[in-house]
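in:
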């Protein structure tokens, strides 16, 4: 029986004030300052009002004031205000043909424009929820074979950078995190986010994990990673699940819970540190290999027809391993050669165009 070992100085995943009881899907949107948007509409309305005042003042001789007969600038401003707001007290009226023609051709369209600006602001607020629901339904209907990232911390961000460097589009990535602030940051980066606890099935269902192709679990705690893995595997039997743990002794439990690959972050970093101490150049090469999209890259690809039947040393690329079924063979393994058409090879190539991301086979 396995027991999860918790690190003695683990960092709390989120602050208590960021806890959420439910989950919400947040689609990325264009960042717009609400105050700036309202201010812009107010300036447009004032511009229409000022233009109307100037038009009436230019033809003030064609207007009659029932109070004193003459129309000054203040009367023009008053007439423009009551006219655009459709109040119309009738104390100042156009009586000349030119003033009435201007009211028909100019003042009336300005009145309509003024109302559109004011009413449009109200309608935008009222229709925001409807528009958001429409976007959400459209997103759900088109989402297939996507990648779910549980945890948008340092590990999650690094995983996303690698996936995007290999050609995965941002609209094919869904991020799950319990912090609303973290999801807002993900939205600003162009990713869809779900606010909620990834250990709960309803939260993962909102991320459409049942239709996902792969799930990356990058939580802060190992026990959380185990629960997320169990839940994700229960909802999707065919997805590839890759999880990260801090303690190496928890890796077997993650594999038993349904993870196809488990990365021990603390041990991997420690090995890279040790390698860099013994040979800084070797450490630099290893860091280059795990940083996708620059320098040298590790890629997994199928064997081509021209390579079938040849030795691993006869290929154009530098082959380090051969994946044959569920067996991972080293380049120096006699069984690796000759290559078969159904094999997949893991090679070291110079980073260039987007390539297929490196995948780790399940354990035997």
């Amino acid at each position: 029986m396995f027991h999860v070992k918790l690190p003695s100085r683990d960092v709390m995943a989120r602050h208590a004030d960021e806890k959420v009881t439910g989950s919400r899907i947040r689609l990325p949107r264009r960042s717009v300052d609400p105050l700036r948007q309202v201010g812009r509409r107010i300036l447009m309305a004032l511009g229409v009002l000022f233009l109307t005042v100037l038009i009436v003042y230019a033809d003030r001789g064609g207007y009659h004031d029932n109070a004193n007969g003459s129309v000054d600038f203040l009367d023009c401003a008053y007439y423009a205000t009551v006219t655009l707001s459709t109040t119309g007290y009738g104390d100042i009226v156009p009586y000349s043909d030119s003033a009435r023609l201007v009211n028909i051709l100019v003042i009336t369209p300005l009145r309509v424009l003024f109302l559109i600006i004011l009413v449009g602001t109200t309608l935008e607020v009222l229709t925001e929820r409807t528009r958001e629901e429409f976007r959400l339904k459209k997103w759900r209907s088109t989402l297939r074979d996507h990648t779910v990232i549980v945890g948008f911390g340092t590990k999650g961000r690094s995983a996303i950078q690698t996936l995007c460097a290999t050609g995965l589009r941002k609209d094919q990535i869904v991020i799950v995190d319990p912090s609303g602030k973290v999801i807002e940051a993900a939205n600003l980066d162009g990713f869809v986010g779900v606010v909620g606890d990834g250990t709960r099935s309803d939260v993962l269902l909102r991320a459409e994990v049942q239709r996902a192709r792969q799930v990356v679990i990058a939580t802060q705690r190992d026990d959380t990673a185990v629960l997320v893995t169990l839940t994700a595997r229960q909802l999707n039997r065919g997805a590839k699940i890759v999880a990260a743990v801090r303690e190496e002794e928890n890796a077997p439990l993650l594999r038993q819970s349904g993870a196809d690959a488990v990365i021990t972050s603390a041990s991997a970093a420690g090995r890279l540190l040790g390698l860099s101490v013994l040979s800084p150049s070797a450490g630099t090469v290893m860091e280059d290999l795990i940083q996708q999209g620059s320098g040298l890259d590790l890629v997994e690809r199928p064997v081509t027809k021209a390579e079938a039947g040849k030795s691993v040393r006869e290929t154009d690329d530098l082959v380090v391993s051969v994946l044959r079924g569920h067996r991972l063979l080293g380049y120096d393994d006699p069984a690796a050669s000759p290559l078969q058409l159904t094999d997949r090879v893991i090679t070291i190539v110079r980073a260039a165009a987007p390539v297929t991301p490196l995948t780790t086979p399940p354990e035997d």
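note: The longest helix spans residues 97-142.
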